[in-house]
Amino acid sequence: TSQEFIAQLMSKLGGKNPEETGGFQEAPLAYDAVWALALALNKTVGPLKAKGHRLEDFNYNNRDITAEIYRAMNTSSFEGVSGHVVFDAQGSRMAWTLIEQLQGQPVSCWMFGAGWRWLSDHRATLGLIYVALLAGCPLISEPVFFHSDSVSVTVLRSGSIEALCIRWTDQKRSLFRRFPLLVLASIIPQDEGGSYKKIGYYDSTKGNLSWYGNDKWIGSCSGPGPPADQTVVIEEFRYLSQNIFVSVSVFAGLGILLGIVCLTFNIYNSNVRYIQNSQPYLNNMTAVGCMMALAAVFPLGLDGLHVSARHFPAVCQFRLWLLGLGFSLAYGSMFTKIWWVHTVFTKKEEKKDKRKHLEPWKLYATVGVLLAIDILLLMLWQIVDPLHITVEKFTREAPKGDLDVLIQPLLEHCSSEKMNTWLGVVYGYKGLLLLLGIFLAYETKSISTEKINDHRAVGMAIYNVAVLCMITAPVTMILSSQQDASFAFASLAIVFSVYITLVVLFVPKMRRLITRGEWQSDGQETIKTGSSTNNNDEEKSRQLERENKELQKIIQEKEERVSELRNQLTERQALRSRRRASSVTNQNHSSPALAIHQSDPRSLAPPPGYPVPISDLHPIPSSFGNSSSLYQPDSKISRNNCHASRLQLLYK
What we know:
By secondary structure, the protein is of the alpha+beta class. The chain has three domains: 93 residues, Rossmann fold (3-Layer(aba) Sandwich), CATH 3.40.50.2300; 123 residues, no CATH class; 285 residues, Up-down Bundle (Rhopdopsin 7-helix transmembrane proteins), CATH 1.20.1070.10. The chain is 49% helix and 15% strand. Strand 1 and strand 2 form a beta hairpin.
């Protein structure tokens, strides 16, 4: 028993205190370990004999004997010198665990970070050392001195803590250093009599902890308390740089003001013919869509620094809707213009008349269809798989000078369960529209029409928007873990594309109206004559010139045909004259009534025996007998001699 063990040990020690003897705490454990092995081997004799085995036959290849010994050890339970002895399935001793603490009279001092490393390296000469790293504690504001019989520590300060001086009583050893991090060091010199004190027991078999309450701890900022039993992990969120956010927001705000100016200009001058011919309602949609896209920059830069976790999903939805609808309005209105120009002016020649007729409601309906598709898609996304906050974790980082703390960087994202699927659908749909817009803009670059007089500017804007969008979409997905780069790339792409669109579409109109003075409306044109009327007259003159050239060409063809018919008629008249002369000679001029004046073709009659010729269904008018009077010497139409009936004949 334990009492017998203590009695025998005391007799061997000659009355000395066993606790002052080296190995006293480990000796009972070794004694019980030998007893546990002996009892386990003794327990295996019977079961092995029943199986036809003996302990003397043990070897490492005989698994039956090994399993029997393991079973006996696992079921061992007895009262030993060190207490109750029992083992778990892994072979570990299940007993009471003694919890001790080294306590003494420490010398505490404030010191800089690298100093405790030096102290740790010289613990053999200094004594026992404990160091607590302090984060966020206020620095001392005046010189402080700590003394003991063997060690004195002085903290020097001049404005801010500069150096640490540690001195011993013999005045032969000293440390004078400059260190970057303030720590709290507790030094227990060897001659101060530091000793282990029992502060509790833990019974692992029952999970029972017995605590004496006599523990002592080194002071910290928050007061006395136990040290951390593991590395402290501090979660730290990464937020968008406020300098980048403010800078981009300023550009976005200026862009919104520019959009308001363009929209106001377009509405105020909507009665000007030049503005009317550019489809001002579609331009208004473009301006509104651009302003919505710029407004999306602000929620795009909001994160946990500005918005609580409760309201962050609403911000995610708001930025998605604002950017999606803004793109549909701005790009959809430009796409509709270029699509109409391509559709109308690539029809066959026989459909020329339909080109001049433009139905605005079809254009507005096209924009409405594109907008409805986006609304339906966004509603489906929000209902089926709404956006929520997801937190991305990065590799833990160790701050400089602090060995007991790790920083866990975190980053908030707007995401959903099937985010990649939804992005694929949206990017695929928008990408097809962008590619189709580029194709239509290229196909219509050489077309000129009065109904949409700014389609070339629209094509240029489509080029810029398409290129920026196709570059930005994949890059932002790659840079999603870098909040500053991702926001800067996406927001600047929005800002630049909007600025280019507004400048290309509206600035030329402003410049034209300012430089040419084309400010009057259709109602004012009856009172004032401006450059708009002159432009219309010039266009009409060009149209008349084109028609004049076409008529000249037709008249020339008809004149050649008339000349050919006259030659044929002259040849036929000559042939008939010869035949008639021969007939008259044979008849001895018996019919004076049949005398023919060869000089007059209208008096010709068919010879005897020939049928009477059928009259021409389209006889040449008598006015063509003097057709040369229709033209001037320079082959231009003489309007004084050109009659409407003759023009109709030439068209026929």
